[in-house]
Design goal:
Layout (H helix, E strand, L loop, with lengths): L5 E10 L2 E10 L5 E7 L7 H11 L4 E5 L15 H12 L3 H16 L4 E11 L1 H9 L5 E7 L25 E7 L7 H13 L4 E6 L16 H23 L1
Parallel strand pairs: 3-4, 3-5, 5-6, 6-7, 7-8
Antiparallel strand pairs: 1-2, 2-4
């Protein structure tokens, strides 16, 4: 199904008084399609995130990337310099878990309003800060399959303060795949082990992937830490994971 024709657009998702900018991509073939929400790194819905959104659409899914910094920095998009990283971190530190979950639920509700989208289970994929947010989003009732890439801080904090995000593991409803680079100093091995142990403890359907010799951001081909071999291996697992949405929709 890869490399099918798609169409893309910039749309807005309504959440109360908030209008959330989002990048949208969908196949041009016969609808309806399962849908996947793409959650950005700290760098905004930039070229890389738009590319991932399009890649997912080319696999036969409706895909949407909402701007999760909309409340703080509308239209924010940047690169990967040290200054860019600092700005992105500053914005991430201003987010709140409750608002992030509200905005993601609003995105799900938007997708449900579209005739070309299947309504019986949604996917979620996130990178960097978005990987942490994806772990949060996995607790939403509509999310059936989550891919969380190198989400730092899951075991130690949650956006806006409060108990660490890992304490919400028991509330995850579907299947979660988590991806980590062994060289990622922002997510020590013991934290990865803790995440895996908690998923196992609560009988969450999951797989945890650890890639030797790769660092944080290994999936992003715009970053110096990009590792093509690990990225391709992870993408294969992501495609397998999202097949759960196809199976759910066909049952």
């Amino acid at each position: 199904m890869a490399d099918i024709q798609i169409r893309t657009s910039n749309i807005k998702v309504t959440n109360g008084d908030l209008q959330i900018d989002a990048y949208y991509a969908e196949p041009t073939g016969p609808a309806p399609f399962p849908a996947v929400i793409v959650l950005q790194e700290i760098f905004g819905v930039n070229e890389h995130i738009r590319d991932v959104t399009e890649r997912i659409a080319k696999e036969g899914y409706t895909a949407i990337a909402p701007a999760i910094f909309q409340r703080i920095a509308p239209g924010f998009e940047t690169g990967y310099t040290p200054d860019d990283i600092q700005i992105g971190r500053d914005y991430a530190q201003q987010t709140k878990a409750s608002e992030l979950l509200s905005d993601i639920q609003a995105t799900i509700d938007y997708l449900k309003s579209l005739s070309q989208v299947k309504k019986d289970g949604f996917g979620c994929i996130g990178f960097c800060f978005g990987g942490h947010v994806a772990y949060l989003a996995a607790t939403l009732a509509d999310i059936k399959a989550t891919a969380s890439f190198y989400g730092a801080g899951i075991t130690t904090r949650t956006p806006g303060g409060g108990e660490p995000t890992i304490t919400r593991t028991k509330d995850i409803k579907g299947t979660l795949y988590a991806f980590f680079g062994i060289l990622d100093a922002s997510i020590p091995a013991e934290q990865v082990d803790q995440i895996e142990a908690e998923l196992t403890k609560h009988h969450i359907h999951h797989r945890v992937f650890r890639y030797d010799g790769v660092d944080h951001g290994f999936f992003c081909d715009r970053r110096g830490s990009y590792d093509a071999t690990a990225a391709e291996a992870a993408w294969t697992q992501v495609k397998q994971l999202f097949q759960l949405l196809v199976k759910t929709s066909s049952e």
